[in-house]
Write a structure and sequence with these properties.
The chain is mostly beta strands and about 70 residues long. Helices cover about 5% and strands about 25% of the residues.
Amino acid sequence: LYLTYMHLTSRTVTSIGAAVGSGAEVGITGNTGGDSMGAHLHLQASTESRLGAGSTAESRSYFIDPRVYIK
């Protein structure tokens, strides 16, 4: 399982593959992205490491619903 946190102003987790526990701060939410209308966090979960894969049909096949893993 690969989780990617996007649209952050800054990150507090600085290494790829770092373990993040419940309630841990991963960064400061930002207002980035072409259509952003305010500060937000984009959590992307996938079965393969595909940073910046975009939104093609092939890349979407690797995405999974993160709610399965969030409690």
